[in-house]
């Protein structure tokens, strides 16, 4: 690699990491939501701390998460030790993000990559922060899932490259990490397919089958236990409900555009994998676990991104996979990378700060003050309160929980929980109802408001997750 190339890439990596550190430092202590769905984590953790089931029949007061339970259990442990608030719950994601970066760096150094190559590839993840829904430092399931998945792929890669008992030890380690990843978020299953394929291609067929059986056994056993304990509702939340979202052609085109514009490093890495497959990898150099997992993960991310309307957090797993694939190719196959080398450009672009939004939103003092005023106002309103827009603020104000609006819109308009909600609104069972903006009133979950409640107040709320007006409704005269 030329000296000028190394300097440019290291500068880009330093800027990316620096902006990420600035964002994390400014955002971690903000006591309110940084993204719209961040409220889900503390509401669910509060339920665990109260000894209530995670997956229960959906009601106007509680709707379970569509994610597997491990991150909620880990966050409950943090909350017991340090208190239940968003800054504490963000620690798990921040630590997971740093762990992923260290893993990428360590894996590439183990493959004899120069420190500069390993550093710039590790920086691809924080550089993509704003293209991943700002999810690297928030209280969500994504970063822990990716950490477990990357650990599994690293262990699976060692299993492919070692012999005898050591290979089996790495296979079992990969299976344990995979089980943890899938029990954090279902989309980690793509890593299982990738690792099994890589083991199969190097002739470790017994280990490939063993890994698949072990992971399936762990996940299905936990799933069966959850299903039995919840009366079938765990399966509804984790399998049935996510499967209802349709695939729309226009959304698929937008997902392809996101891959090309925001994740050029992943696109370049995938092109490398396709080229190696079409060329027919020699027996001495079959696809690695990183390459095989990337080959499964990119199509899965495209599909999921299209089905769920731009859920950009699904791209998170492809970034570290692509970083290792590109870094290994760079170190092993193109050690004299120069400005003229094609791979330089996607790596540089991915590590660079793209101009559309270089840093995640930073909360201000004014943001904090408006949220504090809103919580103080909520303490004055009578309960029960239905507040699906800002349920965490209701929790802070001492009111009963509400499902998050992002959960309720997953249900069809004739779903029993929405019918229950409409009946509760028609019968004025809530003393206070809060909608986010006038447009929210057109959603099915507010179908019973008109004619039974009257707007009494508009409360401006400004913050990273919500900028608009909270509409306060009280029952109208019968």
Specify the overall morphology.
globular
Number of helices: 20
Q: What is the share of helical residues?
A: 55-70%
Please give the number of β-strands: 4
Strand ordering within the main sheet: 1-2-4-3
How confident overall, as mean pLDDT? 88
> Low-confidence segments, ≥5 residues, pLDDT <50?
none
Give the CA-CA distance, first to last residue: 77 Å
Largest sheet: 4 strands, mixed
Overall radius of gyration: 24 Å
| Order of H and E elements | HHHHHHHHHHHHHHHHHEHHHEEE
Give the amount of beta strand, in percent: 5-15%
Structural class: mainly alpha
In short:
The chain is mostly helical and 478 residues long. The protein has 20 helices and 4 strands.
Can you describe this structure?
Helix content is 59%, strand content 5%. The chain has a four-stranded mixed β-sheet with strand order 1-2-4-3, with helices on one face. The chain contains 20 helices and four strands. The N and C termini lie far apart (77 Å). By secondary structure, the chain is mainly alpha-helical. The protein is globular and about 80 Å long.
Descriptors:
20 helices, globular
Secondary structure layout plus pairing:
Layout: H1 3-27, H2 40-49, H3 70-82, H4 86-110, H5 115-122, H6 124-127, H7 142-161, H8 164-182, H9 189-201, H10 205-230, H11 233-240, H12 249-262, H13 264-279, H14 289-307, H15 318-332, H16 344-351, H17 365-380, E1 385-386, H18 391-396, H19 405-408, H20 416-426, E2 432-435, E3 453-462, E4 467-475
Parallel strand pairs: 1-2
Antiparallel strand pairs: 2-4, 3-4
Helix pairs in contact: 1-5, 1-16, 2-3, 4-5, 4-7, 4-15, 5-15, 7-8, 7-9, 8-9, 8-10, 9-10, 9-14, 12-14, 13-14, 13-15, 13-16, 14-15
